[in-house]
Amino acid sequence: MKEYKYWSTGDIIRVFATLAVLFIHITQYSLRNSTSLDIAWWSLNIGQSLSIWAVPAFIMLSGALLLSPQSFDETPIVFYKKRLFKIGIPLLFWGIVYFLLEQKWHLYSFEYMLNDLWHGNISDHLYFLFVILGLYIITPYLRLVIKKNTDNQAELLFIIVLLLITCFSESFNKIVGIWRWHGTLYWVPYLGYYLMGRYIVNYAIDKRKIFAALCILGLSSNILSRYLEMVFQSETIIFFYNNMYSSITVMSLSIGIFGLIAYLAKEISESSHLVKVCRLLAPGTFGVYLVHVLIIREVEFSFHVQYPSNIIMASIYTGLLSTFSLLLVYLMGCVPLMRTIIGCHTQKILEENKINIFKSKTNLFN
Fold this sequence. Notes:
- The protein is built from 15 helices and no strands.
- By secondary structure, it is mainly alpha-helical.
- The longest helix is centred in the first third of the chain and has 31 residues, at 76-106.
């Protein structure tokens, strides 16, 4: 087996992407239901456009880690034992929790909920677990294909074509409405992102000018598309800023930001404060993703707290939500029976970071 080395870039991306997801969920109601396109609305539009890269970044990060050359010696059985239960058990537990709560929050009929359950649409954010689970299942077979491939240019061309096919097919379906993805196939539109993450980290991490250009193009296009959607109230234009992350604008922005962060983070020392903080917070980000929607919905439903209408309040709400969610995750991670469903082992995290802090202190005297 090849030796694995800690990759601080992964923790940096994971932490910032989690904050971006929380910002999206806090602002999406005000952004979509505003009656005035004033300065406050534009601030939310820009802020959410700067955050929409988060979920594709999670997918690309998984691809970079699980399809890296260091992972090729891992057998399919070992791979499945390590990861399927880590996703499957939380999906089962939180699927039941959110299935019951969504009926309470939205007063959906039981028949409506069963139909959504059949399609894997339990709660807005849990689709991500279906995506990751599907990608995990095919990962050992992707490794075999990638291991045999030696033509990097052909690989890049294949990924670009795959992304474009996904974009146009999803756009066509958004307009015409021919099919609806089943939960077992949620991973299909994200396969291009999964492969792109591996390619960027292994072969294109220094292409900062290309990444910057993609960022500018994607950001400006997303901001404009959201404005056009609000002006024309068109269900076809909404595709350019949809939650399936398959539009050409979101693809450009997501790949650009992921590439830039990967490029900039490689120069950051592991002893820096940023890396230390991200290393402490990153193990709890999966749990934060699972519980934050429960907190948002319950606070809005039970206490009638209004969603923020400008970027300043949205940023404050994001900070409070992330802090409370992380504390809840770490508390649950202290209980052995809850560690599996929350994906966090608090005692282990604290012990590892105590060791890291001790090492960094001793290094000062060497």
